[in-house]
Amino acid sequence: MWSYLWQNFLIDSKVRSYIAEHIAKMYKELWCEALIEIGPGKWAITKLIDTISDNFFVIEKDVSLIEDGKLKIENWTLIQGDVLEVDVDKLLQDKKLDSKKTLVVWNLPYYITSPILRKFFGNGSQNYAWGIFMLQDEVGQKLRFDAKKKSYLRWLINYAYQVHYLKWVPGKCFKPIPKVKSCLVELKMEDGKLNIERGKLIQFLEMFAPFSRKTLGSIEKIIAKHSVTSTIKAPSGPVESSPSPRDKMIKFVIPEELKKKRLEELSFQELEQIIKN
């Protein structure tokens, strides 16, 4: 059992078939040229999708699972390592493959969902085509475009992707049974979805998200009083806590009609209104 990584293995054959069929459909519809599976676990999905792509990359951290796999797949590349440390962009570039034609799939421990989503779909430096993921249901609900409570990650992902909540997955479909509810979510790249500069969006979120429980008007006063600023986030690096002299900081002015709203209550149109103001 993958206990040290808190993995819950998907054992339901109907759900596995559903995922595999959906991956095959997505791959074909978008004319993809590469497929990446993160954390194959005990290879339950891998065995069902190994013929979909001539460029099939599997990233697995647990050496014991790799050794126990005993799979013989001719058209795949197995990478042993932490997906957060693997340079996937370079991997594709070396093989002259386009990330815009690459489909990413995974069923992973939920505690690393956010950093993986940000690496592949939320940092702005690459454009992976589609993805289908098993997520904690609470996270999946907050990623939805029509989410009532909008998380920081939701703003980043929805910047360039359509988020489709596919279905809820019961705990009995896993072994061991997880203590949280699960769901399947699909991401589909959508060019020109928002008329906002990504750098400005990230800077706004870094400035306002830490005070998300307060109204925008209150946050605006806090920032003005204490000179709370943030630099634009680098594609894969940490966020600087204070700007260097060369960084161009932006002062965001909150329209009067939006000052009583919280960040999670904003629509994308209202967000555009603030950032373009």
Explain what the structure shows.
The chain is α/β, with parallel strands linked by helices and 277 residues long. It has two domains: 3-189, 3-Layer(aba) Sandwich (Rossmann fold), CATH 3.40.50.150; 198-275, no CATH class. The protein has ten helices and nine strands. The longest helix has 17 residues, at 13-29. The model is unreliable at 1-5 and 228-247 (pLDDT under 50).
- The name CATH uses for the topology of the largest domain is Rossmann fold
Structural class: alpha/beta
| Total count of domains | 2
Report the count of strand segments: 9
**CATH top level label of the largest domain:** Alpha Beta
> How does CATH name the architecture of the largest domain?
3-Layer(aba) Sandwich
Low-pLDDT sequence parts:
1-5, 228-247
Order of helices and strands: EHEHEHEHEHEHHEEEHHH
Strands ordered across the widest β-sheet: 4-3-2-5-6-9-7
Mean pLDDT, to the nearest integer, reads 82
Q: What does the largest sheet look like? A: 7 strands, mixed
Number of helices: 10
The radius of gyration over CA amounts to 20 Å
Distance between the termini: 53 Å
Helix content: 25-40%
Shape, please? globular
Keywords:
18% strand; Rossmann fold; 7-stranded mixed beta sheet; 277 residues
List the helices and strands and how they pair.
Elements: E1 9-10, H1 13-29, E2 34-38, H2 46-49, E3 56-60, H3 63-69, E4 76-80, H4 88-94, E5 102-107, H5 113-121, E6 130-136, H6 137-143, H7 152-158, E7 161-169, E8 174-175, E9 182-189, H8 198-208, H9 216-226, H10 268-275
Parallel strand pairs: 2-3, 2-5, 3-4, 5-6
Antiparallel strand pairs: 1-8, 6-9, 7-9
